[in-house]
UniProtKB/TrEMBL annotation:
Keywords: Coiled coil, Signal
Signal peptide (UniProt feature, chain positions): 1-32
Source organism (scientific name): Sulfuriferula plumbiphila
Coiled coil: 175-202, 344-371
Gene3D superfamilies attached to this UniProt entry: Outer membrane efflux proteins (OEP)
Family under the similarity heading: Belongs to the outer membrane factor (OMF) (TC 1.B.17) family.
Organism lineage string: Bacteria, Pseudomonadati, Pseudomonadota, Betaproteobacteria, Nitrosomonadales
GO MF annotations, alphabetized: efflux transmembrane transporter activity
Name of protein: Cellobiose phosphorylase
């Protein structure tokens, strides 16, 4: 049988460990050697396979710009005729010439302008893809940080529960508690073990998805810097909305779409006049006159000019379509500005509420829960309360810590969405490229 002095000493140690568990669960110690969030975003932007494939759209647009600036090729015109299958008197005519189309209203220059805007559109589309990728990486990164803390809390609670189970079994042997108390403590330990296994599985999934975004094999080991972002007060909503309107790539894409519609409309107007064709022809012929003397061959140099006349087809359909596209683009810009403002406002409000909830956890609730656990263990040590109440109060503390970490996870996800909503790249600013 264990002596009362040994029991009291062991329970004092257990009380100390319970207090240390809470403090350890709230630790924000960072793994300084691990990959930071910004480093992860940079790696993803450089190495993500889908993004690498998408970047070829820019090369395609630049190729179209090159093609748009090329004039049409000259044409070689060859013609010949003779009377071989008719009278076969040796009469013939042959000509060779070259013709070239010329734009008289700047069609090629307008085509190049449309193609130049297409390059800018492709770059803006890549910027959108990079921003989305940065948001996905940030979301996965923060999710893993939250899972790490949830796993750590379970492990610390399991460590305490193991000691509680051991102490309860010793007291059961000393006939101080019942088998029900031993089973209650054992079941609590098994519950925490199952929860930890589930969280470990979720972390494996999140790490595999993060590796996929980074362009790496799913099973490649990755160590993350565990530091959380500073919980400073947020900038004002008005500043966030202004930043979103100046930084969002989807808004820039919409503005460029309007520019393209204007350039396309200008192109449609000049295309009312089709290209003129100028030709130079060298002709040689031989005529035969019935009853007349033999005629010699003659040569002639000809010049031709072909001018299409815009009488019925004045490209009015394409002009009207371009005008409607321009009006549609400006309407979409206004709708997108409203959507962006509302998105930033709702995400801002969500982030602010979660930040306040975290502050309430940290100021009052966690410390009060830890005190309840210490009081319960003291009462159990003195024989005033059963082990079931200790387990219940300890579970309450664990659930409160878990609720705190769930709130932390939601806050981090909302913060990531706020960064993306403002076009901030979550702190990552890529190199700005120009066509």
């Amino acid at each position: 049988m264990s002596s009362p002095c040994i029991n009291r000493a062991s329970w004092r140690l257990l009380i100390f460990l319970i207090g240390s568990t809470l403090l350890g669960g709230l630790s924000q110690t960072a793994n300084a050697a691990g990959m930071t969030r910004l480093q992860a975003i940079d790696i993803a932007v450089q190495s993500n396979k889908d993004l690498q494939a998408a970047r070829y759209t820019v090369e395609q647009a630049r190729a179209r710009l090159l093609q748009a600036g090329l004039p049409p090729n000259p044409r070689l015109d060859i013609a010949a005729r003779n009377d071989l299958i008719f009278r076969n008197q040796g009469e013939y005519a042959a000509s060779i010439g070259i013709s070239q189309q010329f734009s008289v209203v700047g069609r090629i220059a307008h085509q190049k302008e449309v193609a130049r805007v297409d390059v800018a559109l492709a770059l803006a589309e890549i910027r959108q893809a990079e921003l989305k990728l940065a948001g996905d990486v940030t979301s996965r990164f923060y999710r893993i940080l939250a899972l790490n803390r949830q796993i750590e809390v379970r492990e610390r609670l399991m460590d305490v529960d193991q000691k509680l189970v051991l102490g309860t079994r010793n007291r059961f042997k000393a006939a101080e508690v019942s088998e029900l108390d031993v089973n209650t403590a054992q079941l609590e330990l098994q519950r925490l073990t199952q929860e930890r296994a589930l969280l470990l599985s979720q972390r494996i999934t999140q790490l595999a998805q993060l590796n996929q975004l980074l362009g790496r094999p799913a099973t490649q080991a990755i160590a993350l810097n565990d530091a959380l972002p500073a919980s400073d007060s947020l900038p004002s909503l008005a500043n966030q909305q202004r930043q979103a309107l100046s930084s969002r790539p989807d808004l820039r894409f919409a503005l460029l779409s309007a520019n393209r519609a204007q350039a396309n409309q200008a192109l449609a107007r000049v295309q009312r006049w089709e290209d003129w064709t100028v030709g130079v022809v060298l002709e040689q012929s031989h005529l035969v006159i019935d009853g007349g003397p033999s005629q010699g061959s003659s040569r002639a140099l000809g010049l031709s000019l072909s001018i299409p006349l815009p009488l019925r087809n004045k490209n009015q359909g394409n002009i009207a379509e371009a005008a409607a596209t321009e009006a549609q683009a400006y309407t979409r810009i206004e709708a997108l500005k409203l959507s962006i403002g509302n998105e930033v406002a709702s995400t801002y409000a969500e982030t602010e509420r979660l930040q306040q909830a975290l502050s309430e956890y940290q100021r009052n609730m966690l410390a009060l829960s830890a005190r309840n656990v210490r009081l319960a263990l003291q009462g159990y040590n003195q024989g005033l309360i059963p082990v079931g109440d200790v387990v219940r109060i300890q579970r309450q503390q664990g659930e409160l810590n878990i609720a705190y970490l769930d709130t932390l996870d939601q806050y981090l996800q909302a913060l990531a969405r706020l960064h993306i909503a403002t076009g901030d790249y979550a702190g990552y600013v890529p190199e700005q490229k120009t066509p």
